[in-house]
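re: the backbone from monday

yeah here it is again, tokenized this time
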């Protein structure tokens, strides 16, 4: 419990705040600034929490000496770490649920936009930038994880990272895991809110398919769980969230069994070594084979024997042993020419590290490290493929990759468990009927505006070139691969129509149910961002 302030101090603080509020009135007709927002917001937080001590430790104005380090700590895309990048007026770093509740109530009372950040991996920086005045609710302190192996469940707060989740499970059991993403610094709140997936996708489906309960702070500052929020909101929060409905506090999830030994491998081929036929066969095999097997395909321009060509890599997790895997792929995927020497048998936790580009044998404690060596400049896009791409079409794509010189493609196979869950079971719709998902990827080091424009143009061209081969009406996209090129919302008079443009791509027909739920739980659209779920116009 926080210590109490002497009465004299509180009286002095009240005088300061009254004077500040008088100053606030004189500037409130202008755009909000740190000066006009900070003290009224601080007064409100103190009133809501009854603790000036706690508030002083969690609120960072732009004048605070730690403001810049706190802001930059979770910027994972260097494109948004520039002096010209819009900055929050205040950063709030809650230590408990009541701080989140108070922040929502106070931000709403003074009319300031909230951005919610758990790990900072939003590809477009939506969790920590905005073109309108805003504050950041930075969730990194709320990262408690409790694993119950007897019940095979885990309680995970939104500010935890995936690496911390995997480590805490491994501490308690060597035969349990959790189906979520590859990057150990990715925040749970954002990853799970937009569905979440990883290398056990085909065996166990999405991360959201294993959620038992959710805690959320709603627009009225209430702390709700699955029972009190009702079925509609619980449905929406599994794959349709990312800041549209409230502030996620925690998830309770079901763990999954994993074998004591799993197998991983990476096999590479260049075009001169029959890579095109390998990709043709991969499309016939990867979405349909044994659901314990996940074979990601990476294609990128590379130099081989002095010539620019395309390198194809097959990166795999198999929930079983190497002998069984080699036998299976010898029969089902002969063009891969897999041998046991290509394979590594290891534990599930070591496979997690391996997929995250750590060598086998790395201490699992590396998963607890939240720091990145450095944030890269990057752009990402996504697509879904529902019909195989022919050999001739692949050869045309290779020519375009070589012309562009930098962007790459990642094919993530679907099938397995994904085919067994209806498209409307959760807000995430992209299930049966999709062979694989594409991620378009370009990363660079040059901080100049010219480089940003250059690489952005390249990835947009590649995305355009792929139009004939991907889903249509709508051309679907994956919310966790955030892409503002597919549409944004300024929340003016055409807000619903603007939201429909990107909403149908992310959610297909589930978008319409999401809009109805949004209108019911947040009718004034307080929780919003450039690609959030809009409310229904009053005419509808």
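seq for it, each position gets an aa:
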């Amino acid at each position: 419990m926080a210590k109490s302030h002497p009465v004299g101090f509180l009286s002095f603080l009240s005088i300061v705040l009254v004077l500040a509020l008088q100053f606030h009135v004189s500037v409130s007709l202008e755009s909000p600034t740190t000066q006009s927002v900070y003290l009224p917001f601080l007064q409100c937080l103190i009133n809501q929490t009854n603790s000036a001590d706690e508030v002083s430790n969690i609120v960072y104005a732009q004048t605070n000496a730690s403001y810049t380090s706190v802001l930059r700590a979770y910027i994972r895309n260097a494109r948004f770490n520039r002096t010209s990048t819009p900055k929050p007026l205040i950063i709030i770093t809650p230590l408990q649920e009541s701080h989140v509740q108070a922040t929502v109530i106070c931000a709403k009372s003074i009319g300031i936009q909230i951005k919610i950040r758990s790990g900072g991996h939003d590809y477009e920086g939506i969790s920590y930038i905005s073109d309108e005045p805003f504050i950041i609710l930075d969730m990194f302190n709320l990262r408690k994880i409790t694993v119950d192996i007897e019940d095979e469940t885990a309680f995970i707060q939104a500010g935890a990272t995936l690496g911390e989740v995997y480590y805490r499970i491994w501490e308690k059991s060597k035969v349990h895991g959790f189906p979520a993403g590859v990057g150990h610094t990715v925040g749970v709140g954002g990853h799970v809110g937009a569905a979440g997936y990883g290398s056990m996708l085909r065996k166990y489906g999405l991360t959201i398919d294993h959620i038992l309960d959710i805690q959320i702070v709603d627009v009225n500052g209430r702390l709700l769980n699955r029972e009190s929020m009702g079925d509609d909101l619980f449905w929406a929060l599994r794959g349709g969230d990312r800041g549209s409905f409230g502030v996620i506090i925690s998830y309770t999830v079901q763990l999954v069994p994993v074998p004591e030994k799993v197998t991983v491998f990476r096999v590479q081929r260049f075009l001169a070594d029959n890579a095109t036929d390998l990709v043709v066969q991969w499309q016939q095999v990867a979405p349909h084979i044994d659901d314990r097997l996940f074979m990601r395909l990476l294609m990128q321009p590379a130099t081989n024997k002095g010539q620019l060509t395309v390198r194809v890599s097959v990166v795999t997790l198999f929930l079983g042993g190497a002998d069984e895997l080699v036998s299976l792929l010898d029969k089902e995927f002969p063009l891969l020419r897999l041998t046991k020497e290509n394979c590594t048998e290891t534990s599930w936790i070591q496979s997690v590290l391996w997929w995250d580009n750590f060598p086998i044998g790395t201490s699992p404690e590396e998963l607890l490290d939240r720091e990145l060596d450095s944030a890269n400049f990057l752009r990402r896009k996504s697509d879904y493929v529902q019909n195989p791409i022919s050999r001739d079409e692949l050869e045309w794509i290779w020519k375009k990759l070589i012309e562009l010189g930098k962007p790459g493609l990642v094919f993530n196979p679907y099938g397995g468990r994904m085919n067994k869950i209806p498209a409307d079971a959760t807000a995430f719709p992209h299930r049966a009927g999709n062979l694989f998902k594409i991620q378009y990827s370009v990363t660079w080091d040059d901080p100049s505006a010219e480089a940003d424009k250059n690489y952005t143009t390249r990835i947009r061209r590649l995305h355009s070139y792929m139009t004939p081969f991907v889903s249509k009406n709508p051309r679907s996209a994956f919310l966790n691969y955030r892409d503002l090129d597919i549409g944004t919302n300024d929340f003016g008079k055409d807000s619903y129509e603007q939201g429909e443009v990107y909403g149908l791509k992310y959610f297909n027909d589930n978008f319409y149910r999401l809009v109805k739920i949004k209108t019911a739980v947040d009718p004034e659209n307080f929780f919003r961002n450039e690609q959030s779920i809009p409310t229904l116009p009053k005419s509808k």
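The CA atoms of residues 78 and 377 lie 5 Å apart. The two ends are 49 Å apart (CA to CA).
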